[in-house]
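Action item from last meeting closed. Structure (114 res):
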């Protein structure tokens, strides 16, 4: 079942998602992809891909939107823990690059046009 979502922006920043199908709200306290921003930088193509995936795929599902809420709860802790640990950042770069490439491919495919 597909969800009907309404994104609410304040000053061009995503702040709230309403899932009209199940009448639930997801408050976006910070519209960034925390780990990706930490790894790639806020203006990177990788972060843009992950934001499109979040907005167009993950938030379209009640179950997956819960995953997004969990991510927003846990990822700031992970970023603080990573700090200046270059080794772990390098490992995460190696692990996330192929995942982001696959997501980008999926979004550009016949399904998405996101």
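Sequence:
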């Amino acid at each position: 079942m597909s969800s009907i979502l309404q994104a609410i922006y304040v000053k061009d920043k995503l702040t709230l998602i309403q899932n009209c199908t199940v009448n639930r709200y997801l408050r976006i306290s910070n519209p960034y992809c925390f780990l990706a921003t930490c790894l790639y930088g806020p203006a990177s193509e990788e972060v843009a891909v992950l934001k499109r995936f979040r907005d167009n795929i993950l938030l379209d599902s009640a179950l997956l939107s819960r995953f997004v809420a969990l991510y927003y709860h846990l990822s700031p802790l992970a970023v603080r823990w990573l700090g200046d640990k270059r080794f772990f950042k390098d490992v995460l770069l190696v692990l996330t690059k192929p995942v982001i490439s696959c997501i980008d491919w999926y979004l550009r495919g016949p399904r998405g046009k996101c």
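Note appended to the action item: The chain has four helices and three strands.
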